[in-house]
Every structure is written in structure tokens, then in C-alpha cells.
Design a protein that fits this description.
Blueprint lengths: L5 H23 L22 E5 L18 H4 L11 H19 L3 E6 L4 E6 L8 E5 L2 E9 L5 E6 L3 E7 L3 E10 L4 H5 L2 E8 L2 E8 L9 E10 L3 E6 L4 E4 L5 E5 L4 E4 L2 E8 L4 E4 L2 E8 L4 E14 L4 E14 L4 E8 L2 E6 L4 E5 L5 E6 L2 E4 L5 E5 L3 E6 L6 E7 L3 E6 L2
Parallel strand pairs: 6-10, 6-12, 7-11, 7-13, 12-14, 13-15, 14-16, 15-17, 16-18, 17-19, 18-19, 19-20, 20-21, 20-22, 21-23, 22-28, 23-29, 24-28, 25-29
Antiparallel strand pairs: 1-3, 2-3, 4-5, 5-8, 8-11, 9-10, 24-27, 26-27
Length: 420
């Protein structure tokens, strides 16, 4: 059966209710026939934010629509089942079967409908925050957990999932908010709570945010988890999921990310960062600091970043694009691309079998030691030193107090060229 979210069904209720209002108002009072149409995009995908808004165009005497606030009385929703023919065709087929499920789920929450004549809008507020630390039904088959903690009580955060994805958001607030969305083969909230245990608390000065399988429950839960943790950007962080992706943005401190089977994406993170995935890719953009990035079988890409960058993968490609600082890149069997805006300290690139391409500014002051099946140095570079078909050793610019670049491939080409 196709799943229809409660937001779409409520939008249908608005459409039906307003249509009835306009028809009855027209028959009882002709002077109200100037009412304009209401546009509700039933194909629009609503987020799971606590406040849902349906924007209305100009509607004469909008305040009369306050009668629709009776939708809060869930018993009255049952009477709307007979109105399924008014709904779009894509909803009609499933409406009758799903309305009862929607009613049961909404009974567990607080749904409030507010109409504003001044703002010409109808607002549907959903009471996730009214039940902190508890699971609530967000829509049929989808459940949400929400907990807020004062970040003044801890300076380190640990988040761990047995499966599912994690999103980390660094903020300027002195609060930590932990939100989880669960979906999949879950029939009821009680069924979900019988399978997993959720924790959000402060323990020994550490904010602990975790989901663990309930003892004796099946390891194959067939549940998808999406966790979002918003914490102060300068807080120390450890993030672990055993099967899922990790994304993090705007963090500024000591950070550790580890997934056993997903990708890691880092945006605008600063500080000392360790990221490891056992089977996915790693990307970092706008990063600054000391980075240790490790993948057992995926690619690693760092761009528009600066600092000390260490990248290692067992069988993928490595790219450091438009970076300043130093790069340590190692792969057993992939290609390596390094594009420097500025070279600082020493950089190394090694691959068992692949091509190494290095771009440097023409005005760089660096020494180079390049080795491969073939080695090519661009004529546009003022390279001074010894060159042969498989080796190149020399410098560009002043060799005194300069940075160094060492590149070696056992079976492949090494290319040094100008970035300008």
C-alpha cells in the first residue's frame, strides 16, 4: 500500500473543508461570490519540522475558516472518509484504508490548526516538542524522537547508532538538540520501543546520544534511522554509526567520525579531525586544520581547504583540489591528484599502481623527488635538477627553506605541471 503522509492528508482536509465552505457560503449569501481560489500544492514535500504552513491566497472573510479548527477533534475526522471522492485521484485509492491509521497515530500527538486572517495563512503545529525524550508518530509508519539538553552541562558529545545515518550541525547556540526519525518495518510506537532503546543524557560531563538494540531483539531490525544532532560548534565530538552515512557541517574543534559501511561528508569543519569509513567515500570542503582521513575501499576528495591533510585508502582514488598546506596521500591501487594553491612543509604521494598528477603555482619555492614508470615535468615550470624517463629530482624557485614534495608510483605515471 502506498504511504501517504499526514501532511498531505491534512492538506486534503483543508481543500475539502474550504470547498464546502465556499459552496455553502455562495448558496446562502450571494455577496460572497468574490472569494478567490486557494492554492495548495499536494505534490509539495513537507519537512518534519514542528511547524507546517499552508500558504493561502487572498480569501474573503478568512476568519470564518476558524470553524475548521474542529479538525483537532479526531473523531470528526472519521466523517471525512465519505469525502474521498473530492481528493486527488492519487490519494483516493488509499484514503479509505489509511484514514483510520492516521487517526490512531494522531491520537498520540497534539495537532493544532491556527488560522490567521492578517497573514492569510493556515498553520498546522505538531507537538513533537511537547513530548521530549519520547517517540511520537510523525506520519503513518514514521516516528520521531526529540530531546533538548543544555550544553552548559557538558563540553563533549558522543553519538552512536547501531545502523542508520547521522547528521551533525555546529551552531552558535548553547543548546544540544537530538532528533531521530525512524521508519521501516515498524507497526506501532510500542513495536519500535520494543526493538531499540534511545538515550539522550549527560553522563560524567559528556553528552551521550545513542540508540541501541534491545537485548534479545533481532539484529536485522529492518528499521531506518536518521539522526540529527545540533551542538555548539566548538564542542568535542565523537560520531559512530555501524551502517550508514555521516555528514557534518560548521564544527570547530576536535572531531572523530567513524562509519562501518557508509560515506562521510564534511563541510566547513575546522580543528583536529579524524574520519574513517570501512567501505565508503570521504569528502571534505572548506575545511581547515589537521585532518586524518581513512577509507578501506573508497575515494577521498578534499577541496578548498587548508592545513595538514593526511589521506589513505586501500583501493580508491585520492584528490586534494585547491588546497594550501601539506598533503600526505597513500593508496594501494588508485590515482592521486594534488592541486596546490600554496605548498607548506613536506607533502608525499604514493600509489602501488596508478597515476600521480601534481599541480603547483609557477612561483612556488619547493623541492621535488618524483619516481614512476614515466615522469613528466611541464616546460612552463622553472624546474632545475636531474630528469630522466622514470625520475625527476630538483627544485622550483628558491631551494632554501622551501617545502618538499615526494611522489612515487610503482606502476604508473607521475606528472608535474603548472596550476596557473
Amino acid at each position: 500500500m502506498k504511504t501517504t503522509s499526514w501532511e498531505i492528508i491534512l492538506a486534503g482536509f483543508f481543500f475539502v473543508g474550504i470547498a464546502i465552505y465556499l459552496v455553502e457560503n455562495h448558496s446562502n449569501n450571494q455577496q460572497h461570490t468574490e472569494a478567490k481560489a486557494i492554492t495548495i500544492d499536494l505534490d509539495k514535500s513537507f519537512s518534519t519540522d514542528q511547524l507546517k504552513g499552508l500558504e493561502l491566497e487572498h480569501l474573503k472573510e478568512l476568519e470564518n475558516l476558524e470553524n475548521l479548527s474542529e479538525l483537532e477533534d479526531l473523531e470528526k475526522l472519521k466523517s471525512l472518509k465519505s469525502l474521498s471522492t473530492f481528493l486527488p485521484a492519487e490519494i483516493q485509492a488509499d484514503f479509505e484504508a489509511e484514514i483510520n491509521e492516521v487517526i490512531e497515530d494522531l491520537k498520540k500527538e497534539h495537532i493544532k490548526v491556527n488560522f490567521s486572517a492578517d497573514k492569510e495563512s493556515a498553520m498546522v503545529s505538531k507537538g513533537d516538542k511537547d513530548s521530549p525524550g519520547k517517540w511520537t508518530a510523525a506520519s503513518p509508519g514514521v516516528y520521531t524522537f526529540y530531546q533538548e539538553l543544555s550544553a552548559s552541562a557538558f563540553n563533549e558529545a558522543d553519538i552512536e547508532l547501531p545502523f542508520g545515518s547521522i547528521e551533525i550541525i555546529g551552531s552558535s547556540n548553547n543548546e544540544a538538540t537530538f532528533t531521530i526519525q525512524a521508519s521501516g518495518q515498524v507497526s506501532t510506537k510500542a513495536d519500535l520501543e520494543s526493538k531499540i532503546r534511545t538515550v539522550a543524557k549527560v553522563q560524567d560531563g559528556v553528552g551521550v546520544f545513542s540508540v541501541t538494540p534491545v537485548e534479545n531483539s533481532s539484529k536485522d531490525q529492518n528499521i531506518h534511522l536518521q539522526a540529527t544532532l545540533s551542538i555548539p560548534s566548538k564542542m568535542m565530538l565523537t560520531s559512530l554509526t555501524k551502517a550508514g552515512h555521516i555528514t557534518s557541517s560548521n564544527m570547530n574543534g576536535e572531531q572523530t567520525y567513524h562509519t562501518l559501511g557508509g560515506h562521510i561528508k564534511l563541510n566547513n569543519v575546522k580543528g583536529r579531525v579524524q574520519a574513517k569509513t570501512n567501505g565508503g567515500h570521504i569528502t571534505a570542503a572548506g575545511a581547515e586544520g589537521d585532518f586524518e582521513l581513512n577509507s578501506l575501499g573508497g575515494h577521498i576528495l578534499v577541496k578548498d581547504s587548508k592545513g595538514v591533510i593526511a589521506m589513505k585508502t586501500s583501493g580508491g582514488n585520492l584528490q586534494a583540489i585547491d588546497v594550501s598546506g601539506s598533503v600526505q596521500a597513500s593508496t594501494n591501487g588508485g590515482n592521486i591528484e594534488l592541486k596546490f594553491l600554496d605548498i607548506q612543509h613536506s607533502s608525499n604521494a604514493t600509489t602501488g599502481a596508478g597515476t600521480i598528477s601534481i599541480w603547483v603555482p609557477t612561483n612556488t619555492n619547493s623541492t621535488f623527488n618524483l619516481s614512476g614508470s614515466t615522469v613528466e615535468v611541464g616546460n612552463e615550470l622553472n624546474f632545475v635538477g636531474n630528469k630522466s624517463s622514470g625520475n625527476a629530482k630538483g627544485s622550483i624557485g628558491s631551494p632554501e627553506n622551501s617545502a618538499s614534495v615526494h611522489a612515487k608510483t610503482n606502476y604508473g605515471k607521475v606528472v608535474l605541471k603548472s596550476k596557473n
